[in-house]
Structures are given as structure tokens and as C-alpha cells.
């Protein structure tokens, strides 16, 4: 897209490049057998997944708002694993630890690896994730993600959408914010980047936070191949 002058592309990771719910479901399913997954008194996988997601979202928000001291993502994952294990009636510490680590074993979306490789031939690629440095290393290795630079919100000791996290990418990349393109499947993430002056691209995924009618992002793509095409990468 000729009119969108970009020097580097910044990618969200969780949900945008990897299928976070799928990885967590696999971890939850390994916790314990459910005799009646959909019964109110025997929480099914989806109900437990929702418990996990709500815990992470709530605690990250509390940290961003200053209501709780910063903790890295693997500490919050451990808390979420304990919440889910209690609800599932699983008390084995090894099982809880395995579930906590499931948050670092997330499969890539089918277009992710090839899409990143294609874009990397034309732009510096920066991963910008709420995952801690340790978790991000494992995520990248497990999903086969390749970056020119991978940045963790841990370096800002807060979480997106705190402006300090997006500022990490601006500082590392060098160009002014308007020369960076933030790519995410979460509208809230793109709004945070937009507030700091970054250009924005929404990539549709089965999970995530779709744009509202009031959102005005620079690009809307159905997948990474579509995004590459819109950026003139063929």
C-alpha cells in the first residue's frame, strides 16, 4: 500500500499469531477427566477456559491501573492454573504446573509462519507481547516464530494497553511512531498503539477483540497473506 509509509511492523503475539485458546484447552483437558463436561456441577473445558481468561484479564488490568504490583506473565499464569485446577477438582501440584506451562505451548495459526517469513523479507519485524521474556522465548520456539526483535511487556513492568509497552517498540525501532505499523487481532490493543501514534492493522482471527463501528484502523486484513498484499509484499 503505497500511501502507508512504514519502516517496521510490530506484531502482537497472543491470539494474533498463536491460537491461545487452543493451547489452553489442551492443557485444561489434560487436568482431569470430566464425566459431564457441560453439567453446571462439573465445569467443562470452555467454562474453565473462561475462568482462566477472566483471571488473566482482571489481574493485568489491576496492574495497569496501579492496583497491584507488577508480576510477570508466568506468575499470573500460575495463579490462573490454580484457579482452574480448584474448579476442576484437580489437586496434583504437577498437574497445576503442567497447566501453567500450557500457556507457553500455543500453536501458530496456519498462516503465521509463512506470513512472517514473507513480511520479514521487506520489513524489520518486532514482536511485542504481554508474555514475559521467559514465556516469550518458549512461545517463539514452540510456534516457530521468527523475529528481528522480540519485546516483552516485562521490560516496561506493566501490560498493554499501557503506553509504556508500545513505547518499547518505538524506542527499539528508532523511527517515529507514525512509521511503525502495529498488527493485532485485538481492537483494544490497536487502540492502545494508536494513542501513541502508531499506524494500525487489524487481522481477523476466530478469537480476539473485533473492531467497533467507531474504530478507524489503517488496514483491515483477513489474514497475514492479505496484510502482506495490502503492504505491497507479493
Automatic annotation (TrEMBL):
Swiss-Prot/TrEMBL keywords: Hydrolase
Cross-referenced InterPro entries: 2-HAD (IPR006328), HAD-like_sf (IPR036412), HAD-SF_hydro_IA (IPR006439), HAD_sf (IPR023214), PGP-like_dom2 (IPR023198), S-2-haloacid_dehalogenase (IPR051540)
SUPFAM superfamilies tied to this protein: HAD-like (SSF56784)
Source taxon at top rank: Bacteria
Family named by the database record: Belongs to the HAD-like hydrolase superfamily. S-2-haloalkanoic acid dehalogenase family.
Protein name: Haloacid dehalogenase type II
Species lineage: Bacteria, Bacillati, Actinomycetota, Actinomycetes, Kitasatosporales
